[in-house]
Structures are given as structure tokens and as C-alpha cells.
Amino acid sequence: MRFLALTVIKEIKRRFNDPLGLIMWLMIPLFLGGMLTSVLGGASGPTPKAVLLLTDLDDTFISQAIPQALSGGQLADMIEIQEVSRDVGNTRINDDDGSAHLVIPKGFSEAYLNKQPIALELTTNPAQQISPKIIQDVLASLLDLGHYIQLVLGDEIKLIVDGDASADLSITEVAAMISGKIEKLGPYAFPPVIEVVDETPVPEGQSFNLTLLMFPGVLVMAVVFAGQGISGIYWQDREKGILQRWRAGPNGMWVYWTGLFISSMFILGLITFPILLGGFYLIDIPYTKLAPSLLWIMLTGPLLFGTLVLVQVMAPSRRAGGVISTLLVFPLLMVGGSFFPKETLPDVIRAMSDYTPNGQILEPLKQYFLGTYGLSGLFSTLLPLMAVTIALIAVASVIADRKDLR
Amino acid sequence: MINVSELQKSYGDLQAVKGVSFRAKAGTIFGLLGPNGAGKSTTINCISGLIKPTAGNIKVNGFDIISEATKAKQSLGVVPQELAIYEDLSALDNLRYWGAAYGLGGKALERRVNHVLENIGLMDRARDLPKNYSGGMKRRLNFGCGLVHEPKVLLLDEPTVGVDVQSRGRLFDLIKEERDKGTCVLYTTHYMEEAENLCDELAIIDHGKIIAAGTLQDLRAQVGENDIIQLSGVFNAKKLKAAIAKLKPTPEILSLSDESLALAMKEAARHLPAVLKAVSATGAEIRESRLTEPNLESLFLKLTGTELRA
To answer: Which of A75, A362, A367, B253 is 20 to 30 A from B208 in CA distance terms?
Structure first.
């Protein structure tokens, strides 16, 4: 155990004696993250709003409900609606002045009430990545909701719109009809759910913003780059003859691998700590979350080292190992949600994200930052992730051991 | 201390070592001399446990390198051909670390580290990173890392490759010092002069086989008193063979081809003009001639018909 401890200290010392390498692992993700955040308009200021240009050619009670629904509640923080004529809307989208242009055609209300098909025109701005997607998703959800409302309360809405309610039925009676239907459908529409109580207090005023979404990605990007760097030590030690000296010595190679594994935890902690500290300060994440976040990175981060060292060990040469691991790292960063938040990725890639090692580290951390997860949520996958890490390193060790060093 | 018996190592169809056997005793420097690719490094790598032999037995300090690996390796100090040092750790940290790897600790480790630093001449640069060292200094540190734990058996795989003359002399002194303390040193080299100056016992290895072994005196005796004449040029081997057979005294033909000729004979310097005349008479074009007194190189030439090529 003494020699294992010395091995861990030795590896950490090696990294300290190569400050340029440490700085690179730290700076590359900060640089890329900063660039991506600014490109996406997510600096630490207010959340960028998607600008929806609206042309309401129908101009009825029903058509007016759409912009009202899109600008109500929390959506008001994300979407700004500007009413424009069709021509102005088209021109502004072409001039990259707006995220999307929605045209509600004449006759929309009538078609809706009579259950006739009718199309809304939505033109998105291809120059923007995220905002049009937000509008598209929100609008799709809204239309789904409208469809179900129409199915359930279509007759009552028709009564109100047609103005017959005042003649034949009082407003109170229509309201009672609606209330009755909701009461009947209640158990089906709103079934009882198991409520998960998150006891971690979420401070007031903490709101969704893009920088907060990007931050865990930048953090895990540093973990990925550092993991790649640490995994490269295998070939460095092998080509230098260090592994020969190890294998000729009385200590098993497991000490070498365990030393790398444990030291990688500390090195990852060392690299991510300043990023965490800076992020917490800039994004205003409560500092009570700092220690658990750091611990999470230190304990799960070696999963990237394990994955990439296995690639290195299986590679026929140092050069091949470097090329293959680099070819692997960038898709991992892309799919795993480090370059762009998972929420902005296409559905197929988003589904794949859950199966990437960095995605497995990133997602719980992001949910923890957002307040969706408490401590138990954050650490719920810790043991499986650590088990996989140890298994990957063990396999790498066995493969390396089977190779002749000369 | 080292007992190698019928060692074989194959890589697929290629048989790198073909039944090598030798014994190296405590307090001696045993040299494995042979050209590049002869099987020296493969042999030494099998002894140090880096590669598994295909067949044969190896015992180090009485322990089998396969079945009693930990005990055998505890007695071993290895100086690989590569510079097996952490270039991002100071010389002091390198020596401390490799000393600790063999169980040294506390004051004993510090004493030993200081002693090695003094001997390898790196005391004043002990806290510097080796990446800022010269090639010779790195070699000396590589050597120091192999003996910091005072091993009973020291394996040196061509430790002087790329080392300047001054550092080489210093390394030789250190190796002799280890030998004098009772360490068994196994030394591989393809430099004949190194082997002659340093080794107490030698095995000459070529194409994976030991072709001669013994003390320096034993091997010199095998060469005999014959000097070696080597000629290169354009020859007619058939005519040349007949012409040489007519010479009195008749030299021994060690090797003959259309481009080279190697002969062994006593007092070759006195008979050289007659030999050159006879060779020229066959219509040969002599481009170079060389006369060598009996040494390991001439033994190698005698045994293999080829030069101890680097």
C-alpha cells in the first residue's frame, strides 16, 4: 500500500512538473466553452429570447389565444412575440431579424371549431440554432393541447364563440358544463402520480439560462481532454522503457494501473476545481453544491480515462492510439452534450447521449445544477459508473500484460 | 546467480533464441556479445521477465523467473536499452521512487540514493528534471535507477549506446564497482572492445545461438595464434581457392565470396605480400586489405565466417 501511495503521489508530481499540459487541459475547454456560449448568445446576462414574428390573418378569439398561450407564464422569459404583416415577417426572417415567422391563416378559427384540417405556416430562421427549435417545440406542444381541448370542450367553446351562450344558456351554465367535464375526465387526464420530493433547497431567483446549460458541458469537456491526456501516459511509459522497468520489478502491474486510476481522480479534481469555482461565481450556483460537484467529477471522471486508456492499450502503436482516441473524443463531446447542451441536439443524437461515458457524467451534474436533482439524485449512478471504470481499467491492464514489451 | 538452460523464444515462425544456455556467477561480469539482431536483448528480456520464453528455464538468485517471479525479480536490477526514467521527475525523485519499488525506505533509502547520486555524478543536478540533462547524464541516471536497491543481479542491456567517451568510462567504473561488491552483472553489447575490457566471462551469440563461451583467456585460446587477413574487391572465388591452396604456408580460408576473402595464418604481416601477389595473379581487383591480430572479432569471424557487424 505504501508503494501504491507513492505511485499516486509520483503521478501527481509528474503532472505538476508539466504545468503546460495541465494548463492546456484547463484552457481548451474554457476556450471552446466560452466560444460556443458566446456564439449561442448565452453569456452570463439574461436568457436570450426567441423572437417570434406573428401574422394573424384570422384575427379571432381562437387565433388570438395562440400568441397569448405562447407569451404566458415561463414562456414569456423565452419567447418574445412581435405582430407583423406577412411581408414584413418574410423580410425580417430573410434579414436574420427574428427566430421564426408564424402565419395564422384566415379561417383558422372556423376550421378549428368544425374539426377541419388547417395548416399554420411556420418559417424558421436557419441562421439560428436553438431559438427556432424552442419555438417549434413549444408550438407543437401547444397545438397538441389545442387538439385535446377541442375534442373535450369543442361544443362549449363553440357556444362561447358563436355568442349563443348569452341567448340560450347563461355564462354560469356554460362554465358549469365545462367544470363538469373536467371533473369527469379528471382521474384520466390527471392521474395520481408518485411525487418525488427534492429536499435540496433551490434558491430563489435561480432561473434557466443557456450558460447554466453549457457549464456542465465545459466541465466535462475538461474531464474528457484530461482523460485523454492521462490515457496517453501508457504509450509514453511504454516507449520510454518505464513499463519494462515496472514489469521487471517485484510489484505487480496492478499497482501501476491502480496508481494511474487513483491519481487521475486527483488530477481531474485539480483541473476542474478552478472551472467549478469560476462557473459557480459567474452563474450564481450556490456554493453548497461545490463540494458534491467536485466529488462527482473526481469519482466518475476516471470513466473517461478508463475508456480512452483501453483504446490506447488496444492500439498497435502510440500514433494509432493517439489518432483513434482523438477520433473518438470529438464525437463523444458532440454526442455527449459537451459542445452543445443535450436539449438542443436532434432526437436521435439526444438518445445516443445517454450511452456515452461523458453523457453519463454530465447529465446528473446538470440536473444537480438546475435543481432537478438533489444529492441522492446526483450520486444515484455513482456505483455503476465506478464499477464500469474499474472494469475498463482491469481489461486494459490484462491486454497490456499480454503484450510483449519488445 | 543466473542460470539459463535451453532458452527458446519464437515470434510466430521466427525463432529469435534457439536453445541458449549459460551460467553467470556472483562477483563476475558476464558478457553477451553479438551483432544486432543476434538474440541478446531477447535473452536478457526473458531473464528480466519482460517476455515469456517459449521453452527453457531461467533461474535468478535460485528462483525461477516464471513460477517464483516476485522473489526472482526482487534480486534483479534492470537497466534497459531505452532511457527508462521519468523525465518529468527529478533525478532525486526517480531514484527514491525506484528504490521504494524494491522496499527501501526511510534513512536507508536516503543513504542509498545519495550514494548513487554521488557515484553517477549527478549530485549537483539531483533536483533538476532529466529532460534538461545531456544524453550521457540521462544514461547515468538510467543506470542509477537500476542499481539503487543494491540488486544481487544486474542486467545491463547495451547501456553505452549513444554515450560519450567520458560517460562511458564512468559507467564502466560503476559496473566494476558493483562486480567487486559481489553483484552478478549480465552485460550485453555488440562492441568487441567493451566486452574485452569489461567482461570476466563471455558468451558469443549469433542468430539466436551461443557459438562460443568462456573466460576471455578461453576464447583467445580458441582463436589461436593466427592473425586474420581480410580482403575486399572483385574476386573469382574458384580461381582464388586454388591459388591460396598453392601458398606455403597455406592460410586457412575463413570465408570466401566474389567480393570478400578472410584468411587466418601465423605471422600474417610477413606473408601478406605473397598472399596479395597470389590473389592478384588470379585477375582479382583488390580494393581493401586489413590485417587483424587475434581478438574476439577474429574469433567471431573464425566461427561464423562473418564480421561482428554492428
So the answer is: B253
